[in-house]
Write a structure and sequence with these properties.
about 110 residues
Length: about 110
């Protein structure tokens, strides 16, 4: 319905759907950002391990943190969010008979 006070509606203007899932492109871009962030954390961890080489336990901690980062980054980047559980609206109608009279059975 057009509101006369707002003027004519542009047909090319998209309709806002609040419950819609993000588009595939937006979702893919977010997963790429997460991947790049996690892979970007690996190099600083290795540099910090080199900086703290004289404190062996701290250097080992940074190495242990940096080893699974590529694996975790790939898992997160390839994982899509689960689908939302939607309640399906199904049309239910009453069962009605086409004919209400009884039929005579012919045995032979």
């Amino acid at each position: 319905m057009n509101d006369p006070s707002r003027g004519p509606r542009d047909e090319a203007e998209p309709v806002l759907i609040t419950e819609a899932a993000p588009s595939y492109e937006d979702e893919h871009a977010a997963r790429k950002r997460k991947y790049m962030l996690m892979m970007g954390m690996r190099f600083p961890c290795l540099v910090l391990a080199g900086v703290f080489y004289h404190t062996w336990w701290l250097a080992l901690l940074f190495i242990v943190i940096s080893v699974p980062l590529p694996w975790v980054a790939v898992l997160i980047a390839n994982d899509r969010p689960p689908r939302k559980a939607e309640e399906v609206s199904r049309y239910q109608r009453e069962a009605r008979q086409l004919e209400h009279r009884e039929h005579r059975v012919i045995e032979g």
